[in-house]
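Workshop exercise sheet. Pairs work together: one partner reads the sequence aloud, the other fills in the structure field after running the prediction. Swap roles for the next sheet.
Pair: D.N. / O.F.
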Amino acid sequence: MQVFSIWKIKMLQFIKSTVAFIGVKFYSAANKVISSPSIQKSVAAFWLGFYAVSDAIASSKGAGGFSKATTEIQSYETPVSNLMKAIAAVIVLVGAFNVYFKMQNGDQDVKKTVMMTIGGCVAFIAMSEALPMFFK
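Structure field:
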């Protein structure tokens, strides 16, 4: 029991002396680094930049920009919806001529062409009606 406590005391003394030695070395190295003029200038530049950036972020000018952009995009909703309906009308006209010419020539895939034309038209009409839901 006594051997263990002597060993424990010696180990604690060794640890304290090692920590003290490392502490002194670290303190002297840190003091050399801090007293260096280039490090002082770098730290000053960092804090100046940090202050400038934090001031710019704190002014929150970006929030106003986002709300303005949202308003602008919402103003395009009706014209884009009308444009999509006009494209659907063009699809119907082109598809009707395509179906007519295929019927006149006796092609076998008239049914396929009719279904593709109707599908394209319905898709564009559905997208033009669903467009306002993305902006709410």
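Discussion prompt: The two ends are 78 Å apart (CA to CA). What would you look at next?
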